[in-house]
Amino acid sequence: MRQTHTASSAAPPDAPTPLLSVRGLATHFPLDEGNVVAVDGVSFDLYEGQTLGIVGESGCGKSVTALSIMMALSRPGRIVAGEILYRKRRGGGPDETIDLASLEPNGREMRAIRGAEIGYVFQEPMTAFSPVHTVGNQLIEAIRLHNDVDKKEARGIAIDLLRKVEVPLAEQRLDAYSWELSGGLRQRVMIAAVMASNPRVLIADEPTTALDVTTQAQILDLMRSLQQQSGMAIIMITHDLGVIAEMADHVAVMYLGKVVESAPVDDVFHAPKHPYTRALLRSIPKIDAEAEGALATISGAVPHAYSRPEGCLFHPRCPDFMAGTCDARPPARTAVAPGHDVSCFLYEDGGQT
Fold first, then answer.
1. According to the model, what pLDDT value does residue 287 have?
2. Which of 234, 225, 165 is nearest to 199 (CA)?
3. What does the radius of gyration of the chain's CA atoms come to, in whole angstroms?
4. How much is the pLDDT for 92?
5. Looking at residue 288, what is its pLDDT?
6. For residue 125, what pLDDT is reported?
7. What pLDDT does 289 receive?
8. Does pTM top 0.70 for this prediction?
9. What integer pLDDT is reported at residue 15 of this predicted model?
10. Which residues pair with 255 in a beta bridge?
11. Distances (CA, A) of 139 to 178, 203, 208, 352
């Protein structure tokens, strides 16, 4: 029988200690209509300089996982179980590991980490910027929040940051409003604001959504370049497997709040194990497909939040469904290869490989 455990073992040989370690994270939204289980026992490790891709359909809990790490959940969302272990910087000494889930969301310690050590690039920067203040004013505010500088110095830093993220005419753009900029430029300014504090972890939530393919490629190249320069770790949240293939070192596939497969990126694309991962890959359009052929789809629909299936959450849509097993209890998380875990009955007790 294969070993089962609760976290990915994809540790780079030169970084044995995770920078961020999520263990059994559960986030619920208790509403009048019922309790919404948005994140259900998620576990993964993130290492310095690594890009972790979190992929899955809309509503699978990707963004709520990220907001839980940031301790920035909207009400009535709350973390009900698990740990978020982060190696916090400590001036003049070794890093200090703290459990972010134990901190007050608006307390001084969490506010010192949020934005400064863990940055967040929002899915739609248009909604992240104030439309009545220039992007420069907002960027300068972010710089002064995490740096002891006056307004003039902060403006100089802001111009340097805009140049670093390859915004043309940086001084002029600083005095523009967000609605005067293209989607690509807004995203670059958002990344500049996040990089103002030199974060150790960057969470990018669908950073290329609504951008044309050329601008998408530029934004991804920019993020990769900034990562190489600073050594920061990135959590890339997306439904786009093309982005995952280009950016990620390790991938966590989520379905209905659970990580159903966790593996190095090459294993996910060349040796996927979970039926859901395989279905996602089949749904990618192929360049050599017949022009009139139908695109592959995943059968059924994501269950309603108030009617989660018993047993394996994917079993109502699964082509490998085994009655009396898949609908009886949740599958254990099983190691099928180094750094490759899957939650599926096909691989328990010496099953498929």
1. 67
2. 234
3. 21
4. 67
5. 64
6. 66
7. 60
8. yes
9. 45
10. 258
11. 11, 18, 21, 52
Residue with tokens 């390790």: 250
Place of tokens 């328990």: 348
pLDDT at position 4 is: 37
| Single-letter amino acid code for the residue at 346 | L
53 contact partners, CB below 8 Å, separation of at least 6: 236, 237, 238, 243, 244, 247, 248, 250, 251, 252, 265
Sheet holding 233-238: strands in order across? 118-121, 201-205, 233-238, 51-55, 250-255, 258-264, 340-343, 333-337
Give the separation between CA 162 and CA 191, rounded to whole angstroms: 9
37/330 Cα distance (integer angstroms): 15
**Residue ranges of the chain whose pLDDT lies below 70:** 1-16, 91-92, 125-126, 287-294, 350-353
pLDDT of res. 352: 58
The two tokens of residue 218 are 């530029």
CA dihedral in degrees (25, 31, 34, 40; nearest 10)?
-10
**DSSP string spanning 169-218?**
SHHHHTTSBGGGS-HHHHHHHHHHHHHTT--SEEEEESTTTT--HHHHHH
> Hey, how many other C-beta atoms are within 10 angstroms of the C-beta on 146?
15
Distance CA 265, CA 280 (A): 14
- 49 backbone dihedrals φ, ψ, rounded to 5°: 75, 0
Residue 240 CB partners (closer than 8 Å, separation 6+): 55, 208
Contacts of 76 (CB under 8 A, 6+ apart): 29, 30, 31
For the chain, strand residue ranges (E) read 20-31, 34-46, 51-55, 78-88, 96-99, 118-121, 201-205, 233-238, 250-255, 258-264, 333-337, 340-343
